[in-house]
Amino acid sequence: MTTNEKIAALRAAAKAAGADGVLLMTSDPHCSEYLPDYYNALPWFSGFTGENSTLVVNQHTSALWCDGRFYVQADKQLAGTEIQCMHAGSAGVPTVAEYLTANFTAGEALLLDGSCVPATLAEEYAAALAKSGAALKSQDVASSIWDATGERKPLPDTACELLTPAQTGATAADRIALVRAELEKAGATALAVTGLDCVGWLLNLRARDLPCTPLAVAYALVTREACTLFLADGRLNAEDAATLAASGVTVRSYNELVDAVHALPADEVFLVDEKATNYDLYTALTAHKTVAGADPIFALKGIKNPTELENIRECHVRDGVAVVRFQMDLEKAMANGETLYETDIETMLQKRRAEMPGYFEDSFSTIAAYGTNAAMMHYHAEGDVNSKIEPKGFLLVDNGGQYDCGTTDITRTYTVGPLTDNERRYYTYVLQSHIDMARAVFLDYCTGFALDTFARGPVWAHQINYRCGTGHGVGFISGVHEGPQSLRPNNPIIFKPGMTITDEPGIYETDEVGIRIENELECIDLGDNQYGHWLGFAPLTLVPIDTTPVLVDELSRDQITWLNNYHAHVYEMLSPRLTEDEKVWLKNKCAPIGR
């Protein structure tokens, strides 16, 4: 089927259901950042493979909204189809809601799969349609079209496993008790746990249902008396099922959550986050009493316990050894004049990580961007888009690993040959920004919004900015992006000891250069005095930062001291696990700098 034929099939299915249009979006029942292929209908129907998009089809027109990261890609992939590409946020481009108001008339109806749309968006769209006298209905008509072709992938059913308390520092019973205590504080008695990372944290449950994100497609339901895991049959072995049962957890089929909610007494009080709950489930929950609020697991898992932190530190030692060996391989290949392409970098890194104990996959698809490609923050080499690495300029490499003791995320910008003056200046500014964030000392009321400014100072001083946050939380053997904490201009979460965060400022000058330096940091307690309670950061990532491009005279004495101390720490932590030749190489890379 061509894209236009698929759009025509959606129109016909809507008409057969007594409606006039269909809305699809990149979402699943769990409001996930990364979707199982089973739920990712929008790319199949439209041909657009980017993230965070919405497709609206009525009897006369069709339109797809994408954000600024994907304007060029969407224009290219939708070319030759009937779908109008909407550059969301651009001047003169209507929002999805405005489009619905203008393109549906009185008595018409729009269908969406309410199990795959967040309740807040469904209600926004219903209100927009109501302005024209149209209505919204929850009904999935896309699946039958997709299923009939045989091209839809099945719902993931990889083998599940439980992490041990030696890994996580807690049993499922321990964490269920924490959640019940938070529900009581909120005046609630029950919680439907929908986020895959939240289910994983609550029950120590992991699987391989998503690439690079070792989670299981599952739900949980916590009440004062019971906890139920909703998971496809046959995915837990007998031993793990018994371990969960010992923590008071029963198991039911994946698709039985809504029925279980309806079966609870009407006076059950659910804590509900409308933004993180799909529309169909939200409808079931609001048949009971509700209290509005975020799933408390988001905040609980954002603060790592001592066992998790100990494991995370070990994880970064292993990852540091792997990345050091990768850099040695890269330098040797470049020195020998070997031909390397961007796609070779991922293979080289995976080879070195695979040598480390406990590694099982990458934490995201490696970004290896040479030269001007690195100016595109979400650049990914594949197919015909795959530059040769020349012996000049910079190579930006953003990557990470999943281990049995943690998750890593690191970016280094490597010098692969002679640099321009601008490249040196920009690199130095980024390094200053990175260091200022890493060495920040702050009071315990500071939010991600406040802390983000620490990093931007050095680039702002030159009237440069980067159009993204400075950093994000990282999960524990989970998603590489994890809240609630982040270093962003709009993040209101107060930082607390035990939170982990990335520190990744950058400079991205179109058609010229892209530079990013990223470490993971641990928020630590620095004690009290007459001014209050002080916090700071300690580095988790243990990989040398390239000092060859640095304009040392631009750095302050404190910045030089931090960098030299960091490199001394890297050498101290990694050298016991390296060969003698590797130690010599690392000693040189970690040599102190000075004026």
Write the layout of secondary structure elements.
Blueprint: H1 3-16, E1 21-25, H2 41-46, E2 54-58, E3 62-66, H3 71-78, E4 84-87, H4 96-103, E5 109-112, H5 119-130, E6 135-138, H6 142-149, E7 161-162, H7 165-168, H8 172-186, E8 191-193, H9 196-203, E9 205-206, E10 219-222, E11 227-230, H10 238-246, E12 249-252, H11 257-263, E13 269-272, H12 279-285, E14 289-292, H13 296-302, H14 306-335, H15 342-354, E15 359-362, E16 367-370, E17 394-399, E18 401-403, E19 406-407, E20 410-415, H16 421-438, E21 442-443, H17 448-460, E22 471-473, E23 482-487, E24 500-503, E25 506-509, E26 513-516, E27 519-529, E28 532-539, H18 557-574, H19 580-589
Parallel strand pairs: 1-5, 3-4, 5-6, 11-12, 13-14
Antiparallel strand pairs: 1-2, 2-3, 7-9, 8-10, 10-11, 15-18, 16-17, 17-20, 18-19, 21-28, 22-23, 24-27, 25-26, 27-28
Question: What does this protein look like?
Answer:
The strands form 9 sheets. This protein has a 6-stranded mixed sheet with strand order 4-3-2-1-5-6, sandwiched between helices. The protein has a 4-stranded mixed sheet with strand order 8-10-11-12. The protein is an alpha+beta fold and 595 residues long. It is 36% helix and 20% strand. The mean pLDDT is 96. The chain has 19 helices and 28 strands.
Proportion of beta-strand residues: 15-25%
Report mean pLDDT, rounded to a whole number: 96
Shape: globular
Helix content: 25-40%
- How many DSSP H or I helices? 19
- Main sheet: which strands, in order across? 4-3-2-1-5-6
Task: Report the span from N to C terminus.
Answer: 66 Å
Largest sheet: 6 strands, mixed
Radius of gyration: 25 Å
Low-pLDDT runs of 5+ residues are none
Helix/sheet category: alpha+beta
Strand tally is: 28
